[in-house]
From TrEMBL:
Gene3D superfamilies: Hypothetical protein ph0010, domain 1
Protein name: AMMECR1 domain-containing protein
Lineage: Eukaryota, Fungi, Fungi incertae sedis, Mucoromycota, Mucoromycotina
Pfam family, one: AMMECR1
Chain ranges of the AMMECR1 domain: 1-191
Length: 207
């Protein structure tokens, strides 16, 4: 399945409904199961910056999965303060449905721009750690493969010296994703087209 605008509209409305104390719109897409991530970006000084991104690698029914992670990524990403209602008109929402998981031969057995990567490794204290980057993150940062791997180790909590032996000890899975991102303006236009009277508080901030 390719991700669609309706997945993004639904996540936007789940967050708006949370702030407004109402039920979100009913999903207008099927309830297939996928691993998924929801990403919120905030427009500031003319460009969008990450505001929250959380997901799950276990396949979930889309109706419950998108509803859960629309809120979790907006309100519980420990890297950021929770998103506030006043930020809503300045957000974009990206949905990634993950597919084609494969065990890599080694830590370099993946392609920038095509694959997301998930790694498992042992930290300095011997504890098992994991970390991931979605497929679009690495080209956005203009990293090569080594830079991406080293950054992912740091993201996962590795604090020691990163040597070739450390990289070679990594267990890596690669995967692909179908991703789409929409802005708040596109979400508001969708509501206006379908049932403007049902969502006056959301649309009020648009005017």
């Amino acid at each position: 399945m390719a991700v669609s605008e309706k997945h993004c509209y639904y996540c936007f409305d789940v967050l708006a409904a949370y702030f407004e104390g109402r039920d979100p719109i009913l999903p207008e897409f099927d309830n297939s199961e996928y691993p998924l991530f929801v990403t919120w970006n905030l427009k500031k000084h003319g460009s969008y910056r990450l505001r929250g991104c959380i997901g799950n690698f276990d396949p979930m029914p889309l109706h419950t999965g998108l509803r859960q992670y629309a809120l979790t990524s907006a309100l519980q990403d420990r890297r950021f303060n929770p998103i506030t209602y006043k930020e809503l008109p300045h957000l974009s929402c990206g949905i990634s449905l993950l597919t084609n998981f494969e065990k890599a031969k080694d830590y370099l057995d993946w392609e920038i721009g095509l694959h997301g990567i998930w790694i498992e490794f042992e930290n300095d204290d011997g504890r098992r750690r994991t970390a991931t980057y979605l497929p679009d993150v690495i080209p956005e940062q203009n990293w090569d493969q080594i830079e991406a791997i080293d950054s992912l180790l740091r993201k996962g909590g590795f604090r020691g010296r990163i040597t070739p032996a450390v990289r070679e000890s990594i267990r890596l899975k690669r995967y692909q994703s179908s991703k789409l991102e929409i802005t708040y303006e596109e979400y508001a236009a969708y509501l206006e087209k379908n049932d403007v009277e049902q969502f006056p508080s959301v649309l009020k901030s648009k005017k």
